[in-house]
Amino acid sequence: MTGEPAALPLLQMALRVEQDIFVIRQRGREVAAVVGLEHQDQVRIATALSEVARDLLRTTGGADVSFHIDAGADGRFHLVADLAPVAPLPDGRYQPQSGAVSRLVDTLSVSTVGGVTVVRMSRRVPASAPTPTPERLAEFRAELGRTAPSSALDELTVQNGQLIAALDEVRSQRDELAVLNEELAETNRGVLALYNQLTEELEETNRGVVALYAELDEKSAQLRAASESKSRFLANVSHELRAPVTAIIGLGRLLTDSASDPLTDEQGRQVDLIRSSAADLLNLVNELLDLAKAESGRIEPDLTDVDLRPVFGQLRGTLRALATRPEVELVVEEPAGPALLRTDEVLLGQVLRNLLHNGLKFTERGEVRLRARRHGDRWNFEVTDTGPGIAPELHDRIFEEFYQVPGATRVGGTGLGLPYARRLVTLLGGTLELTSGPGRGSTFTVSLPTGGA
Question: How many CA within 13 A on the CB side of residue 442?
């Protein structure tokens, strides 16, 4: 982006009475719409404005409000709202009444602008929005000047409509959760039925394998425990869920063990299906638990001096089995020696394995390549694929939890891999960036300091 936005505010307002809170919310939403924020972000910043305005009216008696656009250090433009209290803030600090306010905006802080203390909040303007040149800013001000504030009743009507829309979305998600719970219940019933059938057949053919049946009874108890906890699965994912899933995998392994009585072709197919489904479910649970652990700060990197060449050799060996398409080649370039890095070898391996696996999923022909280069006091790891590529406006979205790029290239998965990889890279003191475009493939670059986090 080029061009510095003018210092003249887009809009200025005064907060003195309760009625002004509704006007500030309405005008804040209009400013956000004019500069190009998406609808959900318009509602978020308007809600944050009304909450902060209500706090300042109660604690300081009011504020002067202004909106403008700043060029941020990240190279993107930000819509900034400054609320300058008419009286000093208690203890010179501002603590919002609800911690949720800070999650509605990108930043919320107390700053000093021109010698005046202000409560400042900001929201990033999408890259697809018009570039705020001085001429464009003048058009914004003119457009905002042509509109007049509506009444508190009108603003409440709009706010109620937004709340109704949010409730509809919550209901829809609740219905989807109910369907998923029912599917999980049906799966559990099917597994239990199959287990009972297999138990009867094994008892008829071999009464001597008492130890096997004792273990099967234990697995059955674990399966019943999993069935009883299915209603709490999505609301409270915990380590308790790993046990029954692992039990299903163990049971399937026992049933196909060479020491057990042979199964019919149909039974073998069903057991293979059970094992495959259980492995997919365990991967999902592990991704959810790993992400929750990373978010809660419970992962502590174990920094050691790591030689990258054995790490790359292990990645080459373990991921070669995933490159099942003959049209796709997996290339892991050997780093030039000496290739030493002070980091957590396990976490680094998880990050690179995740990125390579992601590339193999989305690449239909060509190659997926891993290379490492040292630049000064940093190591850069590049995972490049020849897949369909990702549009620039989606580069930030793919690092959001559960988001997947829409379209014909979408494949199975949870949408947790990339967010988890970025969190691990952050724990290691580095960055994870994406370079991509439609039809040009994708390059994920992990940059880590040589001395560790």
Answer: 22
